């Protein structure tokens, strides 16, 4: 465990001492020991979705967006070959996928929701029925801009019934919320090293259905972003095509070992759910309201309404909480003033209770009235 400032952000997040320690060794990118780590990592990531035998793990250098862009660019054929992506939109990361489609020249349809509304399977059903030219649906599982959870499994079944491909941005849910390839059909799940797996940022990965990936040769507009090429090369040579982020790979390997030792998805998801409940209850006790109803809140990151006080200013609040050892995240909504608190990562010995106390003390320091949590000794 670390004594550093604790990140209450959805990645980068606070990693364990063991994960940090794993980065103290330098690796040669051609070294067979390093390539064994890559192979182990790819297998471990597939295990999380039970995709061994049916899916392929293709890691890619860069932040999560690089892998999202690579997945769209590789799995969706260009316009002249008939690729057409439907992006249901209930937040900023959905909008980013739509922007990627535009930049890459992929035909795009969008369907907009309010930021506090879940994407509905029956809408996807209707949209796919009305436009048979759509070839893929790109869905954000947990929309990190608010923390809303989209009904992935139900949408996946609709997409499968229509014979279309599903590309899932599971950046902030992978490893904590269930995605089971045996039950939930998808062409690709995209995530990254520095999120719920609690590695450090610097690489993403795409878990693609082998039968879908095999058809993707020549789709990609870019050499560096071509997941098909990366996959074929990696299988042939055991190496990454271009310089791998060696320390990031070693850290993710260490993080994944701890993840499985601790009990895998059930344990990680359970810990985040407890953090989330403790956070919402604790801040409610201070008079701070969460933006989403609990029923559609993912246990990953929570958006809170800013206190209704003229003394409130996010930057000052952020600094006051930081002085007490915790890093908050700004809100991402345009219509209401909010801030966000992540439920993920290593929260230190005091857990979420320490964070709630830091928020309380910071608000008191700013002269903003807080409602004291009710004492258990009535
Ligand atoms: C749902 C989702 N998609 C995509 C991304 C983009 O990842 P990155 O900032 O690592 O490029 C994030 C980042 O938090 C995310 O939460």
Automatic annotation (TrEMBL):
Concerning InterPro entries, the annotation shows: Aminotrans_V_dom (IPR000192), NH2EtPonate_pyrv_transaminase (IPR012703), PyrdxlP-dep_Trfase (IPR015424), PyrdxlP-dep_Trfase_major (IPR015421), PyrdxlP-dep_Trfase_small (IPR015422), SP_NH2Trfase/AEP_transaminase (IPR024169)
Keywords (A to Z) from UniProt: Aminotransferase, Pyridoxal phosphate, Pyruvate, Transferase
Q: SUPFAM superfamilies, from UniProt?
A: PLP-dependent transferases (SSF53383)
Entry-annotated residues carrying N6-(pyridoxal phosphate)lysine: 195
The cofactors it requires, by name, are:
pyridoxal 5'-phosphate
Q: What does the record give under GO molecular function?
A: 2-aminoethylphosphonate-pyruvate transaminase activity
- One Pfam family assigned to this protein is Aminotran_5
Residue ranges annotated as coiled coil are none
**What is the role of this chain?**
Involved in phosphonate degradation.
User: Whom does it interact with, and what assembly results?
Assistant: Homodimer.
**Matching HAMAP family:** PhnW_aminotrans_5
UniProt similarity note:
Belongs to the class-V pyridoxal-phosphate-dependent aminotransferase family. PhnW subfamily.
Could you tell me what this protein is called? Answer: 2-aminoethylphosphonate--pyruvate transaminase
Gene transcribed to yield this protein = phnW
């Amino acid at each position: 465990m670390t004594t550093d400032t604790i990140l209450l952000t959805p990645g980068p997040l606070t990693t364990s001492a063991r994960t940090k320690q794993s980065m103290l060794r330098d690796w040669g990118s051609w070294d067979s020991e390093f390539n064994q780590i890559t192979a182990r990592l790819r297998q471990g990531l597939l295990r999380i979705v039970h995709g061994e035998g049916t899916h392929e793990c293709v890691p890619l250098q860069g932040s999560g967006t690089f892998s999202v862009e690579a997945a769209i660019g590789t799995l969706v054929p260009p316009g002249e070959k008939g690729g057409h992506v439907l992006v249901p939109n209930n937040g900023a990361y959905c909008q980013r996928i739509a922007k990627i489609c535009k930049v890459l020249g992929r035909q795009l349809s969008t369907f907009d929701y309010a930021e506090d509304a879940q994407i509905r399977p029956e809408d996807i059903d209707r949209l796919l029925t009305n436009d048979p030219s759509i070839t893929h649906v790109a869905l954000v599982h947990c929309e990190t801009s608010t923390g809303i959870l989209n009904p992935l499994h139900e949408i996946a079944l609709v997409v499968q019934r229509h014979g279309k491909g599903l590309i899932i941005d599971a950046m902030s849910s992978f490893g904590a919320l269930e995605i089971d390839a045996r039950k939930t059909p998808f062409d690709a799940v995209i995530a990254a090293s520095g999120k719920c797996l609690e590695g450090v940022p610097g690489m993403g990965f795409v878990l693609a259905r082998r039968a879908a990936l095999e058809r993707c040769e020549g789709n990609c507009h870019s050499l560096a972003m071509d997941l098909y090429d990366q996959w074929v090369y990696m299988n042939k040579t055991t190496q990454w095509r271009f310089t791998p982020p060696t320390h990031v790979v070693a850290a993710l390997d260490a993080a994944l070992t701890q993840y499985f030792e601790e009990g895998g998805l059930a344990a990680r998801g359970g810990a985040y759910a407890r953090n989330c409940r403790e956070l919402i209850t604790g801040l409610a006790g201070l008079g701070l309201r969460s933006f989403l109803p609990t029923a559609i809140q993912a246990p990953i990151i929570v958006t809170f309404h800013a206190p209704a006080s003229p003394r409130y200013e996010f930057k000052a609040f952020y600094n006051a909480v930081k002085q007490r050892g915790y890093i908050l995240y700004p809100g991402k909504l345009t219509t209401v003033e909010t801030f966000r608190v992540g439920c993920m990562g290593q929260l230190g010995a005091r857990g979420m209770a320490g964070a709630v106390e830091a928020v309380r003390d910071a608000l008191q320091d700013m002269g903003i009235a807080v409602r004291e949590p009710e004492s258990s000794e009535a």
